[in-house]
Design brief:
Number of helices: 11
Largest sheet: 6 strands, antiparallel, barrel
Radius of gyration: 46 Å
Helix content: 25-40%
Strand order of the largest sheet: 1-2-3-6-5-4
Number of domains: 3
Order of helices and strands: HHHEEEHEEEEEEEEEHHHHHHHEEEE
CATH architecture of the largest domain: Beta Barrel
Low-confidence stretches: 62-88, 316-347
Number of strands: 16
Distance between the termini: 156 Å
Structural class: alpha+beta
């Protein structure tokens, strides 16, 4: 081996030149670094080739797959990304997305269950009726295609034959075929309505806060609709009937609305039967949930009660029917008939108690006028009667005007007992100050028409004033 510096020949294993001392070690190191650089360059070239022709192609294929099937997600996807979308399938016939079709179908179904309130009211009014008897007025609605109409028991109690009047003023004959003395519901058969499509009924409990529409004939204003909300559930109280788990509503309901339907404000389905009003706050009313009465009403519709069953439900049916039987019984002589009727009157009315009843009413009436509070006399008036309406309206008219009524004299002048009612006549004198502060003295005679309700209590049905 010759030295590259001075040309002197050296042995092959020499590390330095024997002549000039040149080192052979640095040359070997340079050669090794050069070889290392060549090897690294080869690796880089090969890596680029593999990435370009192999890995990049696989990544492109994976991206295409993900776009077609979004549910195939890599296990290392960032958890902050949006939720996976459902797999989209296409109908081979229509080439439309099944997911889109399902959404459209659900939207259409929801829209179908919600109706415009104008349409709900307009449609329902054709199936809501005014129920009329000789001394009361209420409301009712078509229950089934066989011509059955639902109302409250207190609207038709005491009667079998009633009148059913539609929104056009057409009157039809109706017959009570079902009535309860426990729950305030009754069913009327009206043959003229047979075949007419009824209102749709809701068969489950409604939610508190639901918007509602109450229909009926309040204060004689037929087919009136009022909108409100269902403000309470499971209200229970006992009046002349048992009201259990009833709805509380704030929709405007007045005497005459009894028996009318309470509708869901979105679907138009009947959810309740309007039945009662809170005496001290007329913004609170109660409606019997329809689903709780369906079984009873359906049983009457399929198997109507006969007249004997209807008349035996309330005791005063029997009393009134007995009078009719005596009147037409040929085997009775006139004297015995009068004797029987007098005994019947004694069981129903008593002059002393009638006199006390009217005088007590007058005392309570004076307190009601002073406090401008109808509730003081409400329970002495027959619900839904003419007297009830007139007194309630008068209290509203004088409210807040500062009028003063001072009764100085009030006496019963005559009592006439008839078969189904008594007429109590009075003479009264009172001082009156109007809203302008002007005083006047009034003298009046009045005739009070009194009946006995199903519980045996006196109720004033009508008041005739003779100035």
């Amino acid at each position: 081996m010759f030295c590259p510096n001075c040309g002197t020949k050296n042995v092959e294993s020499a590390r330095f030149c024997i002549q000039c001392g040149h080192s052979y070690t640095n040359k070997q190191k340079k050669n090794r670094w050069w070889m290392t650089g060549i090897i690294l360059s080869l690796f880089l070239v090969c890596g680029g080739f593999i990435y370009h022709f192999v890995l990049n192609k696989e990544l492109n294929n994976e991206t295409v797959v993900k776009e077609i099937t979004p549910t195939q997600v890599d296990s290392e996807v960032d958890s902050t990304k949006p939720e996976k979308q459902p797999k989209v399938e296409k109908d081979p016939k229509t080439n439309t997305s099944k997911t889109v079709e399902k959404k459209k179908k659900a939207t259409n179904q929801k829209a179908a269950t919600q109706k415009d309130k104008k349409d709900i009211i307009r449609e329902a009014q054709t199936k809501v009726y005014t129920i009329l008897t000789a001394d009361s007025q209420g409301s009712g609605f078509l229950f089934q295609k066989n011509g059955t109409v639902v109302t409250n028991a207190h609207v038709v109690a005491g009667y079998i034959d009633v009148l059913v009047r539609d929104q056009n003023g057409v009157e039809m004959n109706g017959k009570v075929i079902g009535i309860s003395n426990q729950y305030d519901v009754a069913l009327i058969q009206t043959d003229n309505l047979t075949g007419s499509p009824p209102l749709e009924m809701e068969m489950k409990e409604s939610e508190i806060g639901s918007e509602v529409i109450a229909l009926g004939s309040p204060q004689g204003l037929e087919n009136t609709a009022s909108i409100g909300y269902l403000t309470g559930l499971d209200r229970s109280f006992v009046s002349n009937f048992e009201y259990e788990n009833v709805y509380q509503i704030d929709a405007q309901v007045s005497p005459g609305s009894s028996g009318g339907p309470l509708l869901d404000g979105n679907t138009g389905k009947v959810i309740g039967i309007n039945s009662a009003l809170l005496t001290r706050d007329d913004s609170i009313a109660f409606s019997i949930p329809m689903y709780t009465m369906m079984e009873l009403l359906t049983s009457w519709s399929k198997s109507p009660m006969d007249e004997n069953a209807v008349t035996s439900t309330f005791h005063f049916y029997n009393e009134f029917t007995a009078f009719d039987e005596y009147e037409y019984e040929e085997n009775y002589e006139e004297d015995s008939l009068e004797e029987e009727e007098e005994e019947a009157y004694d069981l129903t009315f008593d002059e002393a108690s009638l006199s006390d009843f009217i005088l007590n009413f007058r005392g309570d009436y004076e307190i009601a006028l002073q406090n401008e509070d109808f509730s003081y006399i409400e329970d002495m008036l027959l619900y839904d009667s003419v007297a009830y309406y007139e007194m309630a309206n008068y209290m509203d008219e004088i409210a807040g005007q500062g009028m003063i009524f001072d009764f100085t004299s009030n006496e019963v002048t005559n009592i006439e007992i008839q078969a189904d009612q008594a007429i109590v006549s009075t003479f009264e004198v009172f001082d009156f100050m109007n809203a302008a502060g002007e005083w006047s003295v009034y003298e009046r005679t009045k005739d009070y028409v009194v009946i006995v309700d199903e519980d045996g209590f006196y109720k004033i049905r009508h008041i005739e004033i003779d100035q």
